Amino acid sequence: MFAGVIAYYFLSGFIWGAGYAPTSRKKIAKVADLLDLKSGQTFYDLGCGYGRMIFAIAKSYNVKCVGVEVDPLKCWWIRFMARQKKLEGKVTVIHSNLFDVNLENAENVFVFLSNTTSIMKKLKEKLFREMKPDSRVVSHMHRFSDWPLDKVDGDLFLYSIPARNNAN
């Protein structure tokens, strides 16, 4: 049984579409610094895994954290741990594919996805379409093509949603 749990822990990401690679505490602090998180803002982690990022951000900053995760067991775990950590009001998890979640209320987004050009292109289009101008996005390890960077910190890339061109 224990071997099955360990196997699921490491392999479940491949069942649901991506491998599992937790973000280090040091990187989490850098993400928060790049985003310049402010009290009362909303932070989304797209593909949040077991919630390490959203728990750390919720605990250290007065922001609402929303994790989006396609794996139902990871979603259950995040809800369970939010109750244990008494963070139910600050941490929410949405069981969904990240492309099916509305991001109009997301002011800050973190992504650590595979470097598939088509996924990054499709996500960029979604972010531009749904997020408000001047909202911020940090991508870990993988850059969005044809999107000017605001800042780089090692393998973290900060972007801002551009103003919409309403001249169409």
Please give the structural blueprint.
Blueprint: H1 2-16, H2 25-35, E1 42-46, H3 52-60, E2 64-69, H4 72-84, E3 91-95, E4 108-111, H5 117-130, E5 136-140, E6 151-153, E7 156-160
Describe the structure.
The protein has 168 residues and is of the alpha/beta class. 37% of the residues lie in helices and 20% in strands. The protein has a single domain, classed as 3-Layer(aba) Sandwich (Rossmann fold). It has a seven-stranded mixed β-sheet with strand order 3-2-1-4-5-7-6, with helices on one face. 33% of the residues are buried.
List keywords for this structure.
168 residues; alpha/beta; Rossmann fold; seven-stranded mixed sheet; 7 strands; globular
